[in-house]
Amino acid sequence: MIITPKLSVLVSIVSIYFACISFALEQSYFDKRTSILKHTKVTYRKKPKRSNVPDEYYDKPRPYKHNFKRLINEPDLCSRHERLLLLYIVRSFHTNFGRREILREIFQDIPHDPYSKNIIVRHVFIFGKTKNSTLESLIQNEGNEYRDIIQEDFMESYTNISLKTIMAWKWSVEFCGNADYVMVMNDELFVDQYKLVPYLHYQLLQSTRKDRFVACY
Ligand SMILES: *[C@@H]1O[C@H](CO)[C@@H](O)[C@H](O)[C@H]1NC(C)=O
Ligand SMILES: *[C@@H]1O[C@H](CO)[C@@H](O)[C@H](O)[C@H]1NC(C)=O
Known about the structure:
Blueprint: H1 5-25, H2 29-38, H3 56-59, E1 70-72, E2 84-91, H4 97-108, E3 121-129, H5 133-146, E4 149-155, H6 161-175, E5 179-186, H7 193-206
Parallel strand pairs: 2-3, 2-5, 3-4
Antiparallel strand pairs: 1-4
The structure holds 2-acetamido-2-deoxy-beta-D-glucopyranose (NAG) (2 copies).
């Protein structure tokens, strides 16, 4: 084909144009997952026949309006990776520094068998706030050092643990949609990553499920 100079300019403009469009359409896995999760329809369970739970919990579910300000955040923790296998979200308390040190070591120790190649596992510790300013500045320093602390603006207390659970799920949807699995746990729990990581990876490879699931223990 003979392309006259004018036509060749046009051809290259057209191809630049198409390159721009395809670049815009090429969303990252993180963006794709985040937008799917944000638009997921929540469906509520019908009351099982022999349940003792009051009807109103099934008939009029009122999702908690959880909009506490984030005091400490790590917005890029997951988005800097293409995809993660597992995100641990650990409910911890300010004074449990020793437990967090042990968990950090455990989380970094990923089995390197052929099954688990290129696997990325990340963790965050989540907190409310306390009235003790010493503890508050300790947690800020810890966040600056390890970049694995998330804190929201509600009072830390044992009875507010449900707020922490909601905080965990909300954070995982907003900032870590590219994780295949999310595990919400307390800081007194130990994890055998040499069993868990290959197991989850194997489940993922086998899985034909399109939906996400929640497993509770
Ligand atoms: C605040 O926390 C620190 C560190 O755990 C503790 O030594 C101090 O007694 C606490 N202060 C108050 C007022 O509870
Ligand atoms: C739980 O957090 C809310 C919001 O900060 C606070 O008003 C409430 O007092 C907390 N509950 C307890 C038991 O500390």
